[in-house]
Design a protein that fits this description.
Layout: E1 18-24, H1 31-44, H2 51-71, E2 76-82, E3 88-95, H3 115-122, E4 126-131, E5 134-142
Antiparallel strand pairs: 1-2, 2-3, 3-5, 4-5
Length: 149
Amino acid sequence: MDIPVSTRATTRTRPAPLRHSRTWDAGAPCIAEARDAVDALLSRARLAPERRAVQDAQLVVSELVTNAVKHAPGPCALGLELSADGDELRITVTDTSVEPPRPRPPDPGRVGGHGLNLVNLLSDGLEVTPLPHGKRVAATVPLTAAHGG
């Protein structure tokens, strides 16, 4: 008995990651817009990550955008990329300062200056990439308990 053999190759394509980007010209961006962008991107993906994961991602984006506004003159940009499997959200903020962010030592008596420590706690670490006219700061936030905990 002859068995027909298909010569057509089958390939599995992974869904493309969902992305969002926003650039603010000179002038302060609205930090709430950055938090809302996280919520909108996750809603677009029709994911239902735990509320805590969404809040973690919103806090990380708030801290990174706030640092860009506070420490870098000029425009800044936000990039969000949800992994194809929905397990993590990569947050990037580009600004015009060449100085890398420096976390301060923990001090419970100090008001402010805890943002980068929070980012490191809530994400898989901070990456800083020098650019010709500034830097890009990136953090990846786990969205599932199995991924990050």
